[in-house]
Design a protein that fits this description.
The chain is mainly alpha-helical and 139 residues long. It contains 5 helices and no strands. Helix 2 (30-56) crosses helix 3, helix 2 (30-56) packs antiparallel against helix 5 (115-135) and helix 4 (100-109) packs antiparallel against helix 5. The structure holds zinc ion.
C-alpha cells in the first residue's frame, strides 16, 4: 500500500540525512528504519519516475512523468480489500491489479508503442516498488 499514515516530509528528509551524515552510526532504531522505508517508498513513487522520463523520453518528459504518476491509480484496487491496508500483507500477488496475471499484461504492454508502453513501464515499476517495500524491510 502506498499511502501510509501522515507524513511530515521536511522532518523525514532532515532525519534521513542526519542518519547518513553521522560518522559513528548508532544502531538505527525501528522508528528510523520505518522512516527510511517510508522515504524510499515515496522516493520511488514520486522522484525516480522523473529520471525514467528524462532518460528515456527527454523530448516530452513532463507528459511521460505525469503518465508514470497516473499509474499509481492502480492502487485503487486496495479499496476492495479488507482491511484496505495491512502491513503484514504483500500487495503484489494479493490485489487484482497487483496479481501476477495483471503483471503479465503490464509486461506485454512494453511491446506496444507510445502511451501504452509508458503505462506498462509505470505499472511494472510500481510493482517493483511495492515488492521492495514488503520484502526488503523487516516488518
Ligand atoms: Zn501498489
Amino acid at each position: 500500500m502506498c499511502l501510509m499514515g501522515q507524513l511530515n516530509l521536511v522532518s523525514l528528509i532532515c532525519r534521513t540525512f542526519k542518519i547518513i551524515r553521522l560518522k559513528n552510526l548508532p544502531p538505527m532504531d525501528s522508528s528510523d528504519i520505518a522512516l527510511l522505508k517510508t522515504f524510499t517508498h515515496y522516493f520511488l513513487h514520486f522522484v525516480f519516475p522523473v529520471f525514467i522520463a528524462l532518460i528515456f523520453y527527454r523530448d516530452h518528459w513532463k507528459k511521460v512523468y505525469l503518465i508514470l504518476l497516473a499509474t499509481m491509480l492502480v492502487d485503487l484496487d486496495h479499496l476492495f480489500a479488507n482491511p484496505i491496508f495491512d502491513p503484514d500483507r504483500a500487495s503484489v500477488g494479493f490485489h487484482f491489479l497487483h496479481s501476477y496475471y495483471a503483471i503479465a499484461v503490464y509486461f506485454l504492454m512494453l511491446f506496444f508503442k507510445g502511451n501504452i508502453r509508458i503505462i506498462g513501464i509505470g505499472l511494472l515499476f510500481h510493482m517493483l516498488t511495492d515488492l521492495q517495500d514488503f520484502y526488503l524491510w523487516n516488518h
